Amino acid sequence: MRKIPQLSIVVFFIFLVIGCNQAREKSSPGSAMADSADTAAISSSAALENGKDSTRQFIRTADLKFKVRDVLQSTYDIEDITSKQGGFVILTNLVSNIDDVTTTAISADSSLESTHSTLSNTMTIRIPNTKLDTTLKEIARNIGWLDYRVIKADDVSLQILANDLTQVRSMKTEHRLTKAKNSKAGKPGETVDAEEILAGSEEQSDDAKVANLSLKDQVQFSTVNLLIYQRQKIGRASCRE
What whole-number distance in Å separates Cα of residue 29 and Cα of residue 144? Predict the structure, then answer.
């Protein structure tokens, strides 16, 4: 008769251990549930390249601020992710900000100074536009608390077209001006005027070309601005007067 209660107790403890392990898995920061939640938080359709519509060209940018466990380790991880995705880091600014300093008297001639500081890093990375969404999802594994994320996709196809048309018009103008200048080579005043107009047209064409190169670079490589920070730390030091 005594074996039945003992067996019941053993079975009860087995189910208790299994239940605790399952609870730990669900609450673990590194669990699949946590990872999927972080990924969903920063992923967006605006970060996806749509190959079906070739008439539109988007400049994609992302701005994120989030808390991490360790700023240095997250910085290294983000730099590694950036490199693996074919991107590059153009800014990293690691700063320890002093938030507050308090002094508490311990005795007549000594005191305790407490310094509250927060370590943060401002980063800017450039990522191939086809890898932006993948990069953001990988960065998400560092997120402890997300303050904000802003993802934008600006269509610049009309700006690029306008710059192309400006270059075409400038080339036609330069051709006409060159012919007019050659036909009036014997008239110094008119030649000088033609030279000035021609120089202005060439400058306009160059500006349009440079503007297009800048736009196409931003289309090909998305810009991601990151501000990461960790939990405030307190440093204490005793001082004698």
Answer: 8
Nearest to 227 by CA among 71, 121, 113: 121
pLDDT of 26: 41
Q: What is the DSSP letter of 108?
A: S
Backbone angles phi and psi of 22, in degrees to 5? -65, -40
pLDDT class for 110, splitting at 50, 70, 90? confident
Judge contact between 123 and 91, C-beta under 8 A.
yes
String of b and e for 147-181 (b: at least 16 CB within 10 Å)? Answer: eebebebeebeeebeebeebbeebeebbeebeeeb
pTM over 0.90: no
Q: SS3 for 184?
A: coil
Residues near 129 by beta carbon (within 8 Å), at least 6 away in sequence: 49, 58, 60, 219, 220, 221, 222
Find which of 5-14, 117-126, 183-192 is predicted with most confidence, using mean pLDDT. 117-126
Query: CA–CA separation, 94 vs 229, rounded Å?
Result: 10
Task: Dump pLDDT digits (tens) for 73-106.
Answer: 999 999 999 999 999 999 999 999 876 777 776 7
Give DSSP secondary structure letters for 134-152. Answer: HHHHHHGGG-SEEEEEEEE
List, in sequence order, every residue forming a beta bridge with 106; answer none if it has no partner: none
Rounded CA separation 157/126 (Å): 20
